[in-house]
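Let us work through a complete example step by step.
Step 1: write down the sequence.
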Amino acid sequence: MKILVAGDYCPIGRVTEMLDNSMNNGLFGGYTEVLKEMDFSIINLECPVTNSSNGILKTGPLLKSENLQSLISLKELGFDLLTLANNHILDYSQDGVLDTIRNAHGVGLETVGAGENLEIASRPYIVNLDNQSVGILNMAENEFCGATIHTAGAFTFDLISILTIIKNIRSTVDKVILIYHGGREHYNLPTPEIRRRFRFLIDSGVDAIVAHHTHCIGGFEYYKDKPIVYSLGNFLFDYKVKYQKGEWIYGYCVKLSSLDKDSPFKIDFIPHMQGEKSDFRLRLLIGEEKNLVLDKIYGLNKIIKDDDKFFQSWYSYLISQRTFYLSSLMIKNKYLRYLFMLRFLPSGFLYSRHNRLVLNLIRCETHHEILKNILIIENENSNIIK
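Step 2: predict the structure and record it as tokens.
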């Protein structure tokens, strides 16, 4: 059994132009042949495919594609399942979510991770492959995307919910795969909480975990002989000029292979480039370019497995993020706070778009974790000074 999992596919910008011109033959590089070798292929659709103009209020950009060809091309390429639990699926309201699901099903693609309410969004997708039944779970971190018991959206992380689902599905399938959308954007390593969370979910019955969202290549580990892949990077997401010096243009797909019901998954990496300023199309890497990316992946693996190196990297990252996170809090000056409490300054000044940023820093698990750790360091340093 061979299952391919791809990262973030966002058909915007020059990708849309190529799709509109029916020139998409060269868009996906060598993946046409790669997917032919797979029994089942999964990709994260990083934006709704909808004509809705009802954008929600949130932090970050609103993304969408109005081009049905963006889905047709995936089906023609050989993809079978779209994971929809991500931080952009609700960008254009419930209509955008439902349009996307309807459009995907209309071209023959299956979906998981989003739905018209939380109960539907959290349902696993089950497929039988090579005499093995596989349950695929898909969830995202809690940003501006979550379904509720009455409204459409994504299945967002809740420990009790996911443990209940794993328990219920574990006895009915041979393998369980969790595809998770989360982590800190542009940071190559998992946060300590994500590493701990993923290992716990393996202990709870998951056979493989694959994550995306960070827009950069992440590492992996085998935990109790079961694979955890922490970030695939982008599959196809047109470039941003400011990211050309970063790792936006690199990504990889992962192949999960299993010989039989009793064999654990093994993983292989398929590195590529995309979204370059000069050429945004996918390009499979070979030779020295491929080896450089694989060296990066295995180097990150060494850090993830070594607690001293892992937490040293985490501490260095927290220090690098200190200014951003602290400046994002609303009012730090105690005298200004006091003036508001005494109503010398109108409370209306506190209500602004900025509040949505603060909400996201508190609600999103990764932002919350980073902010909490930075504040702990600040408190410890202030105690030392005193």
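Step 3: interpret the result. The chain has a mean pLDDT of 91.
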